[in-house]
Write a structure and sequence with these properties.
Length: 171
C-alpha cells in the first residue's frame, strides 16, 4: 500500500518535470534515483542547465519577481498548513533574491540544496507542480516556458537531494 501511495504522490511531479524539461520519463526516473552528486554531474542535468536562456531570464526578472511576490505567500501558507513544513521564508523576497542570484551566477546548486535539507521528500515532491505552476499566468509563452523550465531544473535537484536524504535515513 505504501508503495502505491508514494507512486501516486510522484505522478504530478514527474508529469511536471516531463512537461518542462527535455527529458523522457524513463530518463527522469533514472535521474531521480541517483545520488545528488551523480545527478549534478549527469550530462542530462548539465544540458538542461546550459540550455536555459539566461539572457531572457535576466531580462524578465521583474516579471518573475512580480509572479513570486504575488504567489509565494499563499504557497508558503500551504506548505506550512497542508504539508507541515516548519520553516518557510517570512516573505517572497528570499526566494526571489535566490532565483535572481542563481540566474546571475551568484548562488550555487549546492547552496540551494543546503537551504532545503530540512524539507521532507514528500513535501518537496508535492510542492513542485504548484511552484512551477506559479508561472502559468505569464502571458508571453516564451517567458513562461523559460521560467518553468528553470524552476523545474532547480526543483529536480531538490527532489534528488530529498530522496537521497530519505534513502540515507532508511538505511
Amino acid at each position: 500500500m505504501f508503495l502505491d501511495f508514494r507512486f501516486e504522490m510522484m505522478q504530478p511531479t514527474l508529469e511536471t518535470f516531463a512537461q518542462h524539461l527535455d527529458l523522457s520519463r524513463d530518463r527522469l526516473e533514472a535521474l531521480l534515483s541517483q545520488s545528488l552528486t551523480e545527478c549534478l554531474n549527469s550530462p542530462e542535468l548539465q544540458q538542461q542547465l546550459s540550455s536555459l536562456d539566461v539572457s531572457l531570464l535576466k531580462q524578465t526578472l521583474p516579471i518573475a519577481g512580480s509572479v513570486l511576490a504575488e504567489r509565494l505567500p499563499p504557497f508558503y501558507h500551504w506548505l506550512q498548513t497542508e504539508l507541515g513544513v516548519k520553516r518557510v521564508p517570512d516573505s517572497p523576497e528570499h526566494t526571489t533574491k535566490w532565483v535572481i542570484g542563481f540566474v546571475n551566477n551568484q548562488e550555487s546548486l549546492s547552496r540551494l540544496v543546503e537551504l532545503h535539507r530540512p524539507v521532507s521528500r514528500l513535501a518537496m515532491e508535492r510542492s513542485v507542480p504548484s511552484l512551477v505552476g506559479m508561472f502559468e499566468g505569464v502571458e508571453d509563452l516564451q517567458v513562461r516556458q523559460e521560467w518553468q523550465k528553470a524552476i523545474s531544473a532547480l526543483c529536480l535537484v531538490l527532489v534528488v537531494a530529498a530522496r537521497e536524504v530519505e534513502r540515507c535515513v532508511s538505511v
